């Protein structure tokens, strides 16, 4: 483990924690900004999967007979795993939540949130007696982030920069919504920062556990990357085809094209460039 890898871990951690410092007590993120941010993130993740992560799997992991079938199965397992995790997170990985008491995912004032349209309706009692479903949300997001971090460092001890940039972009809307829900639940600034810090540690922790406790194997790396590709495909497709989004117009299409272009030029593993 070298210093460069720890700096990348610090970058992931800081990329989340900066929002805990900047946003509490300040204005909410405007609806339009968050919507465009989500669209960019979804398209960027989809682009990263197909121009970076999948080529990496083909280039490094197909030395074992029938491994392509196993990697394909790993992608499906990742897709299914994300479906299960969303039972805890409520789709926060998509950059919004469906909690009627908190507003539709971007810090709307609680007193006005009941007037908004939501995809999932409930009785609106999640804040009774100060209770709020942040614990389950944090558990689901932590598992999600831990698994995503596992293939971050390759067999040769180098960071997969394509996945790194994908996770950095992916974490921005998640961090915004998680912080919003902490504040809506009456959490203090310090408690909110603690929740954010715990989430921010999960991706580096997943990577570190993979490096320290799993045997160095290109086959295992390919399977883990396939698992993460399945997770990211689910998230990206859910964002881009979210039925809550208004009809696609030229501005959104331009954002998608911009995200695809950015994903294409993100540096990746040396064997595919």
What does the secondary structure layout of this molecule look like, with pairings?
Layout: H1 3-22, H2 31-61, H3 67-89, H4 110-113, H5 134-149, H6 161-184, H7 189-213, H8 218-240, H9 250-265
Helix pairs in contact: 1-6, 1-7, 2-6, 2-8, 2-9, 3-5, 3-8, 5-6, 5-7, 6-7
Question: Total number of β-strand segments?
Answer: 0
Order of helices and strands: HHHHHHHHH
Helix count from the secondary structure assignment: 9
Overall domain count: 1
* Cα radius of gyration in angstroms: 19 Å
Strand content: under 5%
Q: Looking at the structure, what is the overall shape?
A: globular
> How would a textbook summarize the main sheet?
none
Residues in helix, %: 55-70%
Q: What is the average of the pLDDT values?
A: 79
Q: Uncertain regions: pLDDT < 50 for 5+ in a row?
A: 103-132
Helix/sheet category: mainly alpha
Taking the alpha carbons of the first and last residues, their distance comes to 25 Å
Give a brief description.
The protein has 273 residues and is an all-alpha fold.
Architecture overview:
With 273 residues, this protein is mainly alpha-helical. It has one domain (3-21, 30-272). Helices cover 67% and strands 0% of the residues. The protein has nine helices and no strands. It has helices at residues 3-22, 31-61, 67-89, 110-113, 134-149, 161-184, 189-213, 218-240, 250-265. The radius of gyration is 19 Å and the shape is globular. It starts with a helix and ends in an 8-residue tail after the last helix. Residues 103-132 have low confidence and may be disordered.
């Amino acid at each position: 483990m070298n210093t460069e890898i720890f700096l990348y871990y610090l970058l992931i951690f800081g990329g989340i924690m900066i929002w805990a410092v900047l946003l509490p007590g300040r204005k909410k993120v405007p609806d339009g900004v968050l919507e465009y941010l989500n669209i960019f993130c979804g398209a960027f993740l989809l682009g990263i999967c197909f121009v970076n992560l999948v080529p990496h799997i083909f280039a490094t992991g197909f030395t074992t007979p029938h491994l392509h079938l196993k990697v394909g199965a790993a992608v499906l397992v990742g897709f299914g795993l994300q479906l299960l995790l969303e039972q805890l997170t409520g789709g926060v990985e998509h950059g919004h939540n469906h909690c009627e008491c908190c507003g539709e995912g971007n810090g709307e004032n609680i007193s006005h949130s009941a007037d908004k349209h939501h995809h999932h309706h409930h009785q609106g009692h999640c804040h009774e007696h100060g209770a709020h479903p942040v614990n389950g949300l944090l558990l689901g997001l932590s598992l999600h982030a831990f698994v995503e971090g596992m293939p971050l460092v390759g067999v040769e001890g180098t960071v997969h920069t394509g996945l790194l940039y994908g996770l950095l972009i992916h974490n921005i809307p998640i961090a915004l919504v998680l912080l919003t829900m902490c504040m809506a639940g009456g959490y203090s600034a310090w408690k909110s920062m603690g929740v954010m810090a715990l989430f921010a540690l999960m991706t580096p922790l997943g990577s570190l556990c993979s490096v320290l406790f799993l045997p160095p194997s290109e086959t295992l790396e390919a399977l883990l990357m396939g698992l993460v590709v399945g997770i990211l495909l689910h998230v990206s497709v859910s964002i881009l085809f979210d039925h809550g989004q208004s009809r696609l117009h030229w501005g959104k299409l331009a954002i998608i094209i911009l995200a695809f272009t950015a994903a294409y030029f993100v540096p990746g593993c040396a064997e595919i460039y």
